[in-house]
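2024-03-11 09:14:02 INFO receiving multi-entity request
2024-03-11 09:14:02 INFO entity count = four
2024-03-11 09:14:03 INFO echoing inputs for audit
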Amino acid sequence: MSSTFGHLFRIHTWGESHGGAVGVVIDGCPPRIELSAADLQVELDRRRPGQSKLTTPRQEADRAEILSGVFEGQTLGTPILVMVRNEDARPEAYADMRDVYRPSHADYTYEAKYGIRNWQGGGRASARETIGRVAAGAVARKVLAKFGAGEVVGFVSQVHTIESKVDPFAVTRADVERSITRCPDPVAAEEMTRRIDDARRAGDSLGGVVTCVAHGVPPGLGEPVFHKLEADLAASLLSLPACKGFEIGSGFAATRLLGSGHNDAFVVEGGRVHTRTNHSGGVQGGISNGEPILVRAAFKPTATIRKEQDTVNREGEAVKLEAQGRHDPCVLPRAVPMVEAMVALVLCDHLLRQRAIAS
Amino acid sequence: MSSTFGHLFRIHTWGESHGGAVGVVIDGCPPRIELSAADLQVELDRRRPGQSKLTTPRQEADRAEILSGVFEGQTLGTPILVMVRNEDARPEAYADMRDVYRPSHADYTYEAKYGIRNWQGGGRASARETIGRVAAGAVARKVLAKFGAGEVVGFVSQVHTIESKVDPFAVTRADVERSITRCPDPVAAEEMTRRIDDARRAGDSLGGVVTCVAHGVPPGLGEPVFHKLEADLAASLLSLPACKGFEIGSGFAATRLLGSGHNDAFVVEGGRVHTRTNHSGGVQGGISNGEPILVRAAFKPTATIRKEQDTVNREGEAVKLEAQGRHDPCVLPRAVPMVEAMVALVLCDHLLRQRAIAS
Amino acid sequence: MSSTFGHLFRIHTWGESHGGAVGVVIDGCPPRIELSAADLQVELDRRRPGQSKLTTPRQEADRAEILSGVFEGQTLGTPILVMVRNEDARPEAYADMRDVYRPSHADYTYEAKYGIRNWQGGGRASARETIGRVAAGAVARKVLAKFGAGEVVGFVSQVHTIESKVDPFAVTRADVERSITRCPDPVAAEEMTRRIDDARRAGDSLGGVVTCVAHGVPPGLGEPVFHKLEADLAASLLSLPACKGFEIGSGFAATRLLGSGHNDAFVVEGGRVHTRTNHSGGVQGGISNGEPILVRAAFKPTATIRKEQDTVNREGEAVKLEAQGRHDPCVLPRAVPMVEAMVALVLCDHLLRQRAIAS
Amino acid sequence: MSSTFGHLFRIHTWGESHGGAVGVVIDGCPPRIELSAADLQVELDRRRPGQSKLTTPRQEADRAEILSGVFEGQTLGTPILVMVRNEDARPEAYADMRDVYRPSHADYTYEAKYGIRNWQGGGRASARETIGRVAAGAVARKVLAKFGAGEVVGFVSQVHTIESKVDPFAVTRADVERSITRCPDPVAAEEMTRRIDDARRAGDSLGGVVTCVAHGVPPGLGEPVFHKLEADLAASLLSLPACKGFEIGSGFAATRLLGSGHNDAFVVEGGRVHTRTNHSGGVQGGISNGEPILVRAAFKPTATIRKEQDTVNREGEAVKLEAQGRHDPCVLPRAVPMVEAMVALVLCDHLLRQRAIAS
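2024-03-11 09:21:47 INFO inference complete, emitting structure
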């Protein structure tokens, strides 16, 4: 259960950062979707390390291999296995961490849970685990496209205290890819670049917010109770490393409005029902209403820093730790394809679920 | 799937607000837990309408009946069926809404999904659906207590712009129950009472935030990837009616800190590993670390207001709506037992999962 | 998990034979299926005790109440709760069994698993648990009918050593209901009646076989691997009380044929692909091929008999047991609606799953 | 869902016979179980083709590679990915089958379901899919051994009309491995060898029965209703290619006994409760009673034969087919490790489930 996500469009990720490989099984994909490794690679390249000076220098080509479920360029309806070999693993760099718990990492909790951990890198807690998600998200996007059920655009809307000033519903993928920060506001993007670079040089790290919009989602996707669209979206994003918060539509800001100011009036435009405002973020009662879906995910500053920190070792002794390893001073730019993938996976799953019961 | 929550400790809620009854099947509860209807009633009474001037005047005793799974005062290990009859249903009060979509309600989206809805009240989208959750949460609390695995205390930390000033880790249930607002800060509580009362008289509504702390959760509960403790907690709270946002630990505030200021240093105190700060909110890498778990849930202002609103009807014509029905001007006080129940359910499920694999 | 069956069309049964009530939550039913309590009652009346001299004299009207999920005669798409109160419970009749394990009953194993059991009747192991299945099966039949996806006819094909001589594909429901044995072969039926009556008078019991055919199932339902149609059918029938064996198509007889004699040649008839023989029982590679699906389920003789038996009590002492209680000398006639219900549930679930991915 | 088996100890198989590779993700395995690729290889070697003159001449070393979830010789508690490359694939041998439906194969039904199939071999319907199951079963056996919860021994008890004469509860693995037929009765084994060889030369095929016994399973494993141990065992075996029937304990033979002759009297021996006979096959009311568990699985004759057969092509034209390809004239000897693996997987899953709730 731990490594499974989705009910009908269902993925199972596997792999440690320093094991042989990482990847995913994608089960429940409809047949006859055109698919090639290149389709996955586009998204994996946006996620992979070493793509700019803002990201970890770990050199991983992250070449995806599809080992099942695709035949003559089309999905078979059977499980799709995607594998990416770990190439630039340097376990020796982690030798110091063998017996020491890195603050705000998963070292201590994995030991508490399992009594064992792969100390050569982050194991399952590494961001490399998200390779499988991003690959699966690329497949989900193709399914959504085939059934005309939505297009997902994420972007960095905040890094540390710097906020972008854009209309989230107007942002295009081209806008996002223009900057290595993946912030579509050029002024903020430049400032973010500097701030991240400063943090990197200082051996420190930064957090921020990814905003993600799904356009063209038909009304009726979602469920009334435990699998409300926002509940599944929240679970999907909080399952990403370093994510600490989630909002749909107005989010926490909703708490400071009156009901009369928050309610989204219904209007008819272009022959179909719309809402005048979109505080709901495209979802009402757990079900999509046809407006763009907007979610926001908060990411904490990367736990790995190059400054000396207080911690303890496995013997319960106080020790000082100065992490070496390679890491991103700010995960936000690389988090964008991860967030998009998770949103696409949720939508795709709910699309199939709705197809099952629709008349 | 829609109405099922949990993997080992698993609940299935059922019922519409104006159908015959609402309730829950609780499956996977360990045997030989002492349980009576009175245990459930304590929590249901905190949730039920009509308990104070701040809540809807709908008169529902919400008497829980246990129809299976308990024998001679103990759980059998078999499914526990809890039923509460709907008594004070007034479907005629909703006749006006038969063909009109209430803004920011689920009327339109249910029709889009199902092509039919029970217009006599909110159907499944009604807060009455949470009766089953609160009853199940009371059972989960007993399981947690039996295995010494945690105690859950939630409280109202914000209503509209009024914020409580308390140490969340020091709040007790007695502190919470002292005020009809369920805010443990007496000064803020009084202000909240006035503000809610003002909103009620103005026919308007308010939102706010519930903070919830789980004390005494052992290290090692949770999962590394999709069922990270925070992911399941987020899903559980976003599945509550009107919930728009979720935070664990430092949440969105984390995004404005440096890594060096956010990391929780490990220390040894009282013979076991602790963290000096708790920005992590008791969870690292998806797994509990033994510190108190802290989550926050944002609730929007109640969608039902007594002011005239623009909307459309099923024929796609613009109409004015002035809702009558009975409603809470602010759901926050009643949301506390709901939030606690969801947190208890998540912890109980993960407790059982951990027992399965622990040596 | 224990009490949940199905993936999209999903049921959760609950209730002990001597608790307050038994029933089922049916989740995932498509909306706008016409449904009333009377639809369920037809099937429940075929299942209930006391319907003929061949069945237990326990008097239970088994009146089904629908408490949610149906509105103005149609399903809402939300969970349907069906409840049947236990009326003719006589716990005192079981007082002797409080500390004694009835041979080939679940008394001992429930104690081994849970450390507690409801000794007033069979608890969850009672055939009363199947009330929920039969009610849910009636709903599944309506869904299948709406989507033109199959009609299920079961019958008693063997009691003890008496076998019916009929073409299973030609049997109609009317043929089945003609006899209290539910055997459509009048000669065998009469002999079965006598044999069952003899067993009853001797305080002994008989087993037998139910054969079940699903007509009109479209090609393409099922899954290639773990949820092969025959795997789900086998699980569904082996989950019935007293079921010891399962066959699809040629079953165990297949083992004595050569491949050249067993293979079903494909032919084109009436413009579509058929098979000349149907050793496959309508399923190839886990997926329906459009031919009638045929399964057989073996039921052991009822464990409760009125003869003295050797057993042990909770203290591990050898004791003699002469059960009183009320029981069926042969469960076969009442097993027919149970088998049909399980087959309908499996088909309905796979129908919805196929709708999700079909282009 | 299609390719997932198990609830806590959960496997996901993937791969086509002529895609790049086949394998499995094993999720939910407890941590700190000693595990190496060699542990898997022992079982894979019993399953692989080309191991004797009775099996297909396809040359596959079936070398298992573990790519995640194991560290320094121990399981991590995280998903274990096992991959086996397809080496001796000869897609050209299947060119004739591109447009022709092989009788009693899955060609037609896959097309009906998906509108596409990998015609280069059997795709997912190939017995190569069971590589993942057998590898996972080897892991399950290690978990069972660690927790002292059972040892699984399967054997061929029938081929065509030849039945072995052995006490199933006394058969050891050494007895089974003594003959290439995996029949522990030397006389029957020799006859089976001849009969299979005759069928091979005649271009025909044979079916048979595998009997499997689980020794040392503690009382209390299983569930009362839908996941009765026998229901999960039935599903697990009917999910194997070519399986047509299932029995637990007395199976279909139970139907010809009286209750007084079938009931298993309880006795106390060696300080614990036993049954005098074991018609129940080690399971009562869905839950293990501590006696050896006995199941039987019927396998039809291999569908691929070298004789000319009537069939149709994709255009619906009648054609003659004489299959070339490589195949087993009788799957029974290779089915033994598959059956054992499935039984071990079911027991391991239920073992973990019971650990979750036991006090």
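2024-03-11 09:21:48 INFO post-check: Chain C has a mean pLDDT of 94.
2024-03-11 09:21:48 INFO post-check: Chain C has one domain: 4-358.
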